[in-house]
Amino acid sequence: VHPNVSQGCQGGCATCSDYNGCLSCKPRLFFVLERIGMKQIGVCLSSCPSGYYGTRYPDINKCAKCKADCDTCFTRNFCTKCKSGFYLYSGKCLEKCPDGLEANNHTMECTSIVHCEISEWSPWSPCTKKGKTCGFKRGNEVRVREIIQHPSARGNPCPATSESRKCIVQRKRCQKEGKGKKNREEKRKKSNKDESKETRQESKGRAARRQNREQRENNNKMQPKKRKAPNKEQDLAPVDTAH
Q1: Which residue ranges are recorded for the region named Disordered (predicted)?
Q2: 45 pLDDT exceeds 60?
Q3: Residue ranges matching CATH 2.10.220.10 in the chain
Q4: Among residues of the chain, what percentage have pLDDT more than 90?
């Protein structure tokens, strides 16, 4: 072993030197060179840092640099995230997206253009004027539709989601607010009053009939029984005048 190579290294190094840091790594760790000023130091990491991708070999695992426009990559030719000013598309970093695609500044990717999608029109609403449905002849009715899919930046915009048109209704008077309810309440009270009156009259009639029946029964009990009148023809029997 070279005099500058040590076997008792720290930080995952298998072999190291005082000047160059790690020279080799323990199993499953990645070896990468870090620049400190004009000097490069070898380090051993469990995963490669941003801007690098890992390659595994039988003798050593290394971290290799991504392309200049890649922030992270899977291999040198397949980026997973681009640096500022570039848009990711199919593993490549582009300054401008291809035709038929648009740049998404939120994800920094080239995505498909999305056009607006809307539902069918709803039925026309009742004819109204100033929020009322009575007291006028000409008013307005409306119909609406909902947005199902909002468009992307370059997609076709959504059309109007509501329409209004003139309408004509048969003129009718508006019922004053609370009047209909008041009339219904008065009718209900009157009905209840009439029912109560009829019930009271029926009760009084039954009571009077019961009282009259009891009075007749009492009168019959108090009157003495009449004696049977004698038969005048029997009392005036013919007298024998022969003697």
Answers
A1: 169-243
A2: yes
A3: 7-65
A4: 36
First-to-last alpha carbon distance for the chain, in angstroms, is: 198
CATH architecture of the domain 118-168 equals Single Sheet (2.20)
Residue 121 has what pLDDT?
Answer: 96
**Share above pLDDT 70 across residues of the chain, in percent, rounded to a whole number:** 78
Q: What DSSP letter does each residue of the chain carry, written as one string?
A: --TTEESS-STTEEEEETTTEEEEE-TTPEEEEEEETTEEEEEEESSPPTTEEEEE-SS-EEEEEPPTTEEEEEETTEEEEEPTT-EEETTEEESSPPTTEEEETTTTEEEE----EE-PPPPPPPPBBTTBSSS-SEEEEEEE--EEE---TTSPPP--SEEEEEEE----PPPPTTHHHHHHHHHHHHHHHHHHHHHHHHHHHHHHHHHHHHHHHHHHHHSPPPPPPP-HHHHTPPPP---
Nearest to 138 by CA among 187, 112, 171: 171
Given a contact cutoff of 8 angstroms between Cβ atoms, the answer to whether 152 and 100 are in contact is: no
Of the given ranges (105-109, 180-184, 199-203), which has the lowest mean pLDDT? 180-184
pTM of the model: 0.48
Domain with CATH 2.20.100 in the chain: 118-168
CATH fold of 7-65:
2.10.220
